[in-house]
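Saturday, quiet lab. Running sequence design on the structure tokens for the scaffold JK sent over.
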């Protein structure tokens, strides 16, 4: 891993949080299902925040995704920009500001679980054919969509594409297709880290304000342990995703290899698998029954985390990948996980 992380402009980070916090303050409880908030999307588009994957660096994009996840914003920023937008830009396909999502089609033109497909304007299809990979930008009217929902209540739809609609596709390399999958896995870890950060904040606030037997919940040792364990997992996940984001930026600038990127993403996703379990379980224990109600913001954060941790590879898949990396390292497994550390011009 390279030690050349790009810091996010504090003013930009503050802007992201303010726009989303203002939206959140004026928004009622979401309920059991989520639909796209097109008013919020329009505001983000006006500010140029729906094209960051093509016009900004990875850390800035990651900060926006974290902020959106912290405020449980029902908009497809990751799908539209970080994935579909990047795929089109890499393939050299011009794109307008219509809302897009990415469908990872099989050879028959099917993807059974496409986020936001039923509410997007266009579907960017990635699919294999004859040993190659192709990308096409399709109008939603050109594909068949069967609406569905994921664990968080957000649209997760079955998409099938007639091969005739794919005739205008552009071929991409196998490495680009692999990199796109790793981007998807990474943005889910980034989003989850933002949501988990907010979950811990809610826990701290709840145990500080809520009293039981004449004293705050925070005074009970068992509660302290629950919150401390959740905070530790949140910190670990933030560190792992930050390292993977730095590697992704290095890969985009040709300063890191695809193998190095995969290693960093695998570690971040493996950490997410554990962190999601601990944080979600502990948070709901701390909040009790109130945290499961549709009116409470906790469930708007915990449900997406559980959905994201299984997207672009299951927990078992990424744990196994980390184990394979360690097993292939021989006598130096630690270096296999963290890679090269460059500090002040010296490689160690």
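Result came back. Writing it out in full:
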């Amino acid at each position: 891993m390279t030690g050349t992380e790009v810091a996010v402009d504090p003013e930009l980070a503050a802007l992201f949080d303010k726009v989303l916090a203002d939206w959140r303050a004026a928004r009622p409880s979401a309920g059991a299902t989520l639909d796209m908030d097109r008013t919020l999307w329009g505001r983000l588009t006006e500010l140029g925040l729906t094209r960051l994957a093509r016009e900004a660096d990875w850390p800035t994009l990651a900060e926006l995704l974290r902020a959106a996840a912290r405020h449980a914003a029902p908009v497809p920023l990751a799908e539209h920009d970080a994935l579909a937008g990047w795929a089109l830009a890499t393939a050299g396909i011009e794109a307008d500001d219509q809302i897009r999502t990415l469908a990872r089609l099989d050879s028959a033109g099917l993807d059974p679980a496409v986020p936001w497909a039923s509410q997007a304007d266009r579907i960017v299809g990635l699919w294999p054919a004859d040993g190659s990979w192709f990308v096409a930008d399709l109008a939603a009217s050109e594909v068949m969509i069967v609406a569905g929902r994921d664990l968080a209540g957000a649209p997760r739809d079955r998409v099938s594409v007639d091969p005739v609609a794919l005739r205008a596709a552009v071929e991409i390399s196998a490495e680009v297709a692999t990199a796109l999958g790793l981007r998807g896995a990474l943005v889910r870890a980034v989003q989850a880290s933002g949501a988990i950060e907010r979950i811990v904040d809610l826990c701290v606030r709840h145990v500080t304000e809520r009293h039981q037997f004449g004293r705050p919940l925070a005074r009970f040792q068992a509660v302290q342990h629950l919150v401390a364990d959740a905070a530790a997992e949140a910190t670990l996940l933030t560190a792992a995703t930050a390292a993977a984001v730095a590697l992704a930026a290095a890969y985009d600038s040709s300063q890191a290899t695809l193998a190095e990127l995969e290693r960093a993403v695998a570690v971040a996703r493996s950490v997410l698998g554990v962190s999601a379990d601990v944080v979600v379980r502990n948070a709901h224990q701390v909040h009790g029954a109130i945290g499961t109600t549709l009116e409470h913001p906790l469930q708007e954060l915990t449900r997406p985390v559980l959905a994201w941790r299984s997207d672009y590879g299951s927990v078992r898949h990424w744990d196994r990948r980390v184990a394979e990396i360690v097993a292939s390292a021989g006598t130096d497994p630690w270096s296999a996980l963290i890679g090269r550390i460059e500090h002040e011009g010296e490689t160690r």
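Notes for JK: Residues 73 and 148 are 19 Å apart (CA to CA). The radius of gyration is 21 Å. Ask whether to fix the surface positions before the next round.
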